[in-house]
């Protein structure tokens, strides 16, 4: 599950996050599309 509306969580260093798994490229493309729409909804 990717929560695209929580843009603050993108600061992985500040949150001392680690990677749990890899995601398929087509899923990452969909997630990035959602994030871009949130940042720049044109």
From TrEMBL:
It comes from Candidatus Erwinia dacicola. It comes from the Bacteria. This is Toxin.
């Amino acid at each position: 599950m990717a929560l695209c509306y929580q843009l603050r969580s993108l600061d992985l260093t500040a949150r001392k996050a680690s990677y749990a798994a890899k995601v398929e490229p087509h899923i990452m493309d969909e997630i990035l599309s959602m994030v871009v729409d949130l940042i720049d909804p044109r």
